[in-house]
Amino acid sequence: MALFTRSATLNKHLYHRFYFQPFRTFVDARVKWVRDAYLDFAVEKEKNLKQIITLKNLIISQPSKTIPLSVASVHKTLFNLPTTASNFFQKYPSIFEIFQSSKPYPLPHVKLTSQALTVHNEESKILHSTRYHKDVAERLAKLLMLTRAKKLPLDIIDLIRYDLGLPHDFILTLLPEFPEYFQICNMGKNSLGSEVFGLELVSWKDYLATSVLQENCGTNTRTPIKFPINLPKGFDYEKKVRIWVHEWQKLPYISPYEDAFFLSPNSDQAEKWTVAVLHELMHLLVSKKTEKENLLALGDYLGFGTRFKKALIHHPGIFYVSNKIRTQTVVLREAYKKDILAERHLLMGMRYRYLHLMNQNVKVKRNYGVHVNGINKHMGSAPKGG
pTM value? Predict the structure, then answer.
């Protein structure tokens, strides 16, 4: 059964308004993919940023504010490191410092540099601010409002936790502040017989049930609301696709917070609603981008099946799919001016500070030997960050 819905019972007016719309399907034409160098760069410049922040949070969570190098080495796959842990830390000498511990055993450890600690402390002030907590709580609530049962498994939320800007320990630090919004719930057992826990919205919030597109265009949906389309230079649709898009934009806009699963899934009206849901989801993310596989997994859980994937293919002027950094990343075109976010979220401002540190060509002198993988290595000048 589809797990996607809205806040209230579908009213007859909405049903009759859309159910008898003329049935149209996407034109039989291939929409080509064209590279966008600016958006590719927007994705590529954040290569390894998520891993760095994950490792930074792990280090700072320890009482000693350090971790043994062996910990990161053993869990290389868990941290999704592109190289060995030792090489990864050495690549970013402005963020990480490898040093030789003396107690209780002389083993190589990793700590943050003073520069990274400064950025972390400033970031912590934002993450613990009332303003930030209210912002992230409302975006998380809106995500749950896009679901049928007003709940999502925690593992699904975890797929986009970083992109939502949720604190890594949000269950302990954020949720208790908003008992009127959230509660942890049991969602039954998975195929392996293990209990599945989820996050549930306590009650529907009417004041949040307005999409970004409605806010920008006015909430009167009796007139068609068109999606912003930004095609890269040198790209244009085939004539019959251009005509189809023009007519498709004229179709009524159904809010992503309404349930329009009654529409035929192959109709153009259903596709416009699917794009509305996908568009709103992308706007909930602090960087307005996320890995394609995570987005498709979320869409599959919401009950859309392959419809998210088709929407990404049919509408390259709304969504761009980049093939950079060892994966595919979906980017919301309208959110970017060239490779820069048009409106920068507070958290993204801090992430760009980490990017600045990552790209600093700092040479750090090492005057000790480090025992790595059974080999004594003298740590001279660290390699340049990149």
Answer: 0.86
